[in-house]
Amino acid sequence: MLEAIENSAFATVIRESPSLFGYTMVLSLHAIGLAIVVGVSTVVALRLLGYASDIPLRPVARLYPLMYTGFWINALSGLALLAANATGMLTMIMFYIKMAFIVVAVVLLARIRSTVFSEAALAADVIDESRQRRLAGGLIWCWVGAIIAGRLTGYPFFVADWFGI
Predict the structure, then answer these.
(1) What crossing angle do the helices spanning 129-152 and 23-48 adopt, rounded to 10°?
(2) Maximum Cα–Cα distance across the chain
(3) Cα separation of 37 and 43, whole Å?
(4) Where are the alpha helices (DSSP H) in the chain?
(5) How confident is the model at residue 123 (pLDDT cuts 50, 70, 90)?
(6) CA–CA separation, 30 vs 38, rounded Å?
(7) Is 79 within 8 Å of 38 (Cβ atoms)?
(8) DSSP label at residue 21
(9) Distance CA 115, CA 126 (A)
(10) Residue whose C-alpha is closest to residue 33's, from 80, 82, 66
(11) Cα–Cα distance measured from residue 136 to residue 132, given in angstroms and rounded to the nearest whole number
């Protein structure tokens, strides 16, 4: 099945097209989506960690649609990159580690939205700073882990030698 995905016309165009609209464009979109989702969610996390505390939380909550946009750019371009190298990526431990970090980061973003940025929490103006700091710190660490694991997918032999896997 993985070979069928890799041999599809779509994956072949992404992987082998000499056009800038092939692999180069998809990889660039992946980097842009990553910059948006990680950059904006890091801004939110830093605000929750106490930086720029003079900025009220309500306007920060309005950054979520931008994060979602970055996430979907990243997800769709990531699926295209995965199709172009399905057998290679789906046999690498670092790919699964990256995906685990991303899943946890998305769960943390949802938890932050439901606990810190819910209408009830914003209206009550009661903040559990310890909880929001744990969520924000965890979010930043998940993005760092996802970025490092993602970069290491480009070096499978190094990872295999270094970690013995």
Answers:
(1) 160
(2) 57
(3) 10
(4) 2-6, 9-16, 23-48, 57-61, 64-84, 86-89, 93-115, 119-124, 129-152, 156-163
(5) low
(6) 12
(7) no
(8) T
(9) 11
(10) 66
(11) 6
Among 11-20, 38-47, 98-107, 128-137, which is the least confidently predicted range? Answer: 11-20
Dist CA 33 CA 75 (whole Å):
8
Residue 124: which pLDDT band, with cuts at 50, 70 and 90? Answer: low
The CB-side HSE value for 103 (13 A sphere, CA atoms) comes to 6
CB 45 within 8 A of CB 144: no
Q: Which two tokens stand for residue 90?
A: 């789906």
**How many residues are recorded in the chain?**
165
Identify the residue whose tokens are 């939380």: 57
Give me 40's structure tokens. 């904006």
Can you tell me which residue has the tokens 């830093």?
46
Q: What is the pLDDT of residues 52-105, one digit of tens each?
A: 888 888 888 899 999 999 999 999 999 999 999 988 899 899 999 999 999 999
Q: What is the DSSP letter of 19?
A: S
Residue 93 identity (one-letter amino acid): I
